[in-house]
Amino acid sequence: MARVENKTALVVGGAKGIGLAIAERLAREGATVFLTGRRADEVEDAARKLGGDVRGLVADAASPKDLERVVADVIKARGHLDLLVLNAGLSEPASIADQTLEHFDRHFAVNVRGMVFGLKAALPALSEGASVVLMGSIADTMGIPPYSTYAATKAAVRSYARSWAAELAPGGIRVNVVAPGPTDTDMMAAVSEDGRAALIAPIPLGRMARPEEVASATLFLLSDEASFITGAELCVDGGMQQV
């Protein structure tokens, strides 16, 4: 039996990379999937690629109004939301000496504000027993120059997950975090061989994660197989943070 059959899912930031892999897996496991992205062409391509009961919506994850509009569309189409994945994220390097207000604000707008107001927008639609997964990173507990601002946003995500898990538990809503390590997405195609080798070197399993492996972890936390798990962080990092 499909693990999320007849469920309604929304993947914010689902048009490419890890988000697209999650949307694809949820669709294969029986869910009706709505996915968002900022660029219309990427959203259309993703929905066309996945086919079936997948619908693409153009939205800026940093815009509360866009997120409210997306949830209104989900409610109009399905009446409720069972599974929510807040995946949209930004990761750009900057040392403290090179830090700018724009760099700081852009990261917190997408990585933190987007999750806060994404969940707020979704609350009226979430069914009893709904499951929420926030996309974190193993950077939340590591010092990774020059990605200090990115790491700080992911530490905020981890903290919010704990508080939200406690706050929403009376309604049976679970909130968890998936924290990937280096993952072999299209974004990595621009990284040099030396850069890739440096990323892989600290990983005990000797390679990057595949997007579908992160999707599998996300599916587990969303599904009833994780019905007694909330407030947790599941690392998908080949042992990088763990060993």
UniProtKB/TrEMBL annotation:
Keywords: Oxidoreductase. InterPro entries: KR_dom, NAD(P)-bd_dom_sf, Sc_DH/Rdtase_CS, SDR_DHRS6-like, SDR_fam. The keyword Membrane does not apply. Pfam families: adh_short_C2 (PF13561). It comes from the Bacteria. SUPFAM superfamilies: NAD(P)-binding Rossmann-fold domains (SSF51735). The keyword Transit peptide does not apply. CDD domains: SDR_c. GO terms for molecular function: oxidoreductase activity. Residues 7-203 form the Ketoreductase domain. Belongs to the short-chain dehydrogenases/reductases (SDR) family. This is Oxidoreductase.
